[in-house]
């Protein structure tokens, strides 16, 4: 086991995937592979962990009535499940929007105070 360079900080993106998927599906109904590609704009890498998390999230959102899906036939390959947002999903996105706005304000206050201890974009602070 190697020695760490310092404390590790890791943000959890899994829950943020939920409003991102709803937002993308409001833009246009889509199937899983297309959604996975489009999630990249929100910082998701598109790797196998993101794919597994995305499909779990889609299934859960559908079970909760936030999304509906249907199988679409394709001449170029096997049928694909296409998802779209329900009215309940729109309401959930509205709640996410308010939560994200509140968190954005908190984070901006945090960064403003934190910046006093750092010079420019340096990763080192002065106690």
Average pLDDT taken over every residue: 86
Query: Which structural class is indicated by helix and strand composition?
Result: alpha+beta
> What would CATH call the architecture?
Orthogonal Bundle
> Based on CA inertia axes, which overall geometry fits?
elongated
CATH topology group: Arc Repressor Mutant, subunit A
**Total individual domains:** 1
SS strand fraction: 5-15%
Order of helices and strands: HEHHEEH
Q: Calculate Rg over CA atoms.
A: 19 Å
Helix content: 40-55%
Q: Low-confidence parts lasting 5 or more residues at pLDDT below 50?
A: none
Q: How would a textbook summarize the main sheet?
A: 3 strands, antiparallel
Figure out the total of helices: 4
Q: Quick recap of the structure?
A:
With 127 residues, the chain is of the alpha+beta class.
Describe it:
This protein is of the alpha+beta class. It has one domain: Arc Repressor Mutant, subunit A, CATH 1.10.10. The protein has a three-stranded antiparallel beta sheet. The longest helix is centred in the C-terminal third of the chain and has 28 residues. The model has no long low-confidence stretch (mean pLDDT 86).
List the helices and strands and how they pair.
Layout: H1 17-27, E1 30-31, H2 32-38, H3 48-63, E2 67-74, E3 77-85, H4 87-114
Antiparallel strand pairs: 1-3, 2-3
Task: Give the tags.
4 helices, Arc Repressor Mutant, subunit A, 127 residues, alpha+beta, three-stranded antiparallel sheet
């Amino acid at each position: 086991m190697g020695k760490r360079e310092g404390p590790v900080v890791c943000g959890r993106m899994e829950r943020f995937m939920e409003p991102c998927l709803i937002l993308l599906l409001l833009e246009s109904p889509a199937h899983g592979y297309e959604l996975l590609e489009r999630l990249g704009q929100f910082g998701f890498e598109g790797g196998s962990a993101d794919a597994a998390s995305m499909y779990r999230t889609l299934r859960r959102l559908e079970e909760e009535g936030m999304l509906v899906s249907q199988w679409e036939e394709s001449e170029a390959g096997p049928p694909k499940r296409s998802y779209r947002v329900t009215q309940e999903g729109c309401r959930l996105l509205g709640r996410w929007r308010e939560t994200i706005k509140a968190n954005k304000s908190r984070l901006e206050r945090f960064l403003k105070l934190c910046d006093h201890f750092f010079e420019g974009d340096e990763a080192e602070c002065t106690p």
